[in-house]
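Final report, closing paragraph on structural work. Over the funding period we assembled a curated collection of sequence-structure pairs, and we close with a single example.
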Amino acid sequence: MGNLRNRLSLWLAVLLMVQIFPFSVFAFDDTDYPVYEGSANQTALYSTIQFNDLQGHWARQAAQEAAALSIMKGLNNRQFGPNRTLTYAEALTVVVKAMGLEADAQQAGEAQMRPKVRDILLMSAADNWAKGYIQVASQKGILTPQESNEILNLTQTERDRIESQVEQQLSIYENRDLTPAEINTLQNQVRELLTTKATWNRPVSRQQVAAWVSRAIELEPVYGSDMVNVYRFNDWRQIDTEKIPMVEAVLQRGLMTGTSATAFSPKGQLTRGQMAQLVVNMHDDLLEARGLRRINGEVNDVENIQDAGKNKRIYTMRNDDNSKNYILVEPNQKDFITQKNGNLGLSAQLSIGDGMRYYINDKDEVVYGAVDAARESKLEGFIDAVDESQQQLNLMDFSDKLHMLTLQPSTQIRINGRDGALKDLLYGMEIVATLKGDRITAIEGILEEDPYRHGYIPPGSRVKVGDVLFINSDTVEIKVGDKREKYHITAYTQLLRSDARANLFEIKEGDRVLLSFDDIYSPDIASIQVEDQERHIDKIYRGKIDSVNERGKEILLSEVTFYESGKWVKHPDQKVKLKAENDKLYDGALKTTLKSLSAAKGSEIYAAVEKSYGVERVAKLSLKQGSAVLYESRITDIQFGTNRMVVDNNSFSFHPGTIVVKNNRLVDMLNLDLSQSIYMAADVNRGNRSASFIAIGDSGILDDRIDGTRIMVYQGNVEDIYDYGITIGRLSYQLDYLKLENNQWTEVSRSKKFTLTEDSYIFDSDLKKEINSSYFIDTRYIDPEDVEDEELRKRIENRFYIGKSAYFVVKETTIDGETYAEVLALNLTPKIIYDRGRVNTEHSAMAVIDKVDLDNGTITLGNLKYWNALNKRWEAASGSEAVTMDNAVVLINDRPVSQDEIHRLKPKARAYVIKNKKSSVNDDAYVVIVEQ
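Its predicted structure, as stored:
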């Protein structure tokens, strides 16, 4: 009994120890897989490269990586100086270090050290080593004798200035009782320092760095017909002749780019941040020279262990080449530097599932690891072959291009939403492969056919639902969750909105669409169903979080303003309640939750709001990150690789949390584009400017459209009417007919013929009556007695309308370079007022329809913008305006509607209005073109 009690006590003690010390004991003695370790040097290096001047800088990650790889150092422990100009000596130092020749350069510098004069130290170790880097660069052919001579070439004035400075500095030592030999030695050292400062410490040019990099990584200079990239730049003739082939080689490799789309700036300067990016771009070309190997893999497991009384951590790596190895680190002792989500740290920030590229030195030590935020991409097509033993499959995409995909152990395979395995992927199956960089993270197999139908599916039974990302005349790209999918629009694709036929131009970026297909193997769309206005953005709010109801999924805001025509207008209610039922809640670039927002009470937010069934719902919310700055300007530069853009000569970042709105739709940040007119609310925090809300200028109703059509408005006299045609002519002897182009009336001298059809809407705004289009078609016999209205009958009999003025609303369609012009609507005999032969009272407005008043025959326009012909831009007007409609022709999505059908106009519909100021009360509308 005693022995049993002792054994039980022992087992309890062991169990207690296991619970108290949750470490496993691990031995690598019998493993078949390589074991790499951290490095004490890397732990020490990490403490010296935590720079505080990189926050928000576009080169932050590149600078951190260049420093972690010991190729570039900071100016001190806390400063990298990314905007500081690079000198000749510094650039050569970086190139030589990247080649793994740092030790050679330091030894060469030591060999050139000048003798010391007593206790006087003029030349530091850095000065001596700089000479060594220049010497090694010359010996390796990176720096040519010609380039060295050009750098060292000084004018007589510069040499005289140096001699004067030498005398001044030597005067400091006059009372030191130095011998002539010692004075001579000091004189030479001072002269050497000043000469180096005047030559090698001058700013280096971009073309010179390109040449040095080209030689360092042994790029073949490019000549002849292969030389194409340099010619894209208007300043290519400014590149030194002998450097052009090397600059071309560097451009072709993507190591450098121009300073803009049209300039390389060969004589321009290079900053330390730009050099850091260049280091990252070329580093992998020099791995062998530096004694490094790169491995791409994924953290498959993380285990904390105790070994010889020390806490250690083991990372199990599954690599892209299907190999496996371990990384053993001793936290804070023998570790390695990592970069993840733009943050520099040690290995502790790594997590299971992280895809990492890491570098091993010749001592089998990991010296650096980077978890790159690779852009996610999609590959779609059909399986051509599967190799289970090699974990590979071949995919044939819709362009008949073959891709060989290697799967990682963590690659998730699903078929019709259910978990699967590689063996379940069959030949001919349609799949969507998700890639992050070069790594396959997920494969979705699609089995939509009845096996007894031999590939046939019922028409429309295969569907896709998503938000329009991009659309043109033959292609639509949609976002389905985080996926991007592209499909083909054909001449037979049916377009529907609210179960009625629609035009292609009515589909906008940000619209929710349902695509249906008749063929499982084809990307050709059978029909596109567009969701109606419920998902359009009704308001953009800015306010403070008053409270959050997590259970009810509601946010209460106080001090609320809303965006309207470039201004923030105070909300009439003290507090506004919003439903928050989706996951598009952001704190900067990262998603957040209602629980986190509840803890941020009193913080300001921006919210894009939809209004469905009278309830305001959050479409997207962004927590304000700093002090607000507002801009209304154009995008003059944009880089999606770094998520930065330039607006009004200021650089801004944008991110997944940025609210972007266009045409009253919430759109993706990828819909931002160069030269767009935008309104932006940005946050300034620690010098970084980050966009929180961007309103992209709406596409104009009269702009060219994706289906090759556009609406044109003309103002002129009816010159002739004939068989299905009408000709527009001069307004008067001194005035040609007018065309509304770029929102301004311009004169056109030559008569123009338009097609008139049975569907053309013809309106006499003098009589305020619709005219049957058949009365205008010459080839038919029209009995005047058939015209019931007496005044109209007289006008038809007397060909009254010949020579009378009119607005012509014309749809122009361009096919294969030929344009067809069809009259959609004709507004006859408007009251045009002349002033010395010029029209002076018509003006154009863009607006949204706030209200339709059928009793008074008016519509109220909000978000008004008037065209300023002097400045050639739209300018916002305050308030709203009622417009009289009884003289107007109205078109809704290219379909004319009668005066009795004006009730079909919807609130929030976009309108382009041509109106005339006849009284101080309301303007008279003559042409109203509506998209809804």
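The chain is about 15% helix and 40% strand. Residues 100-198 form one domain. We thank the funder for supporting this effort.
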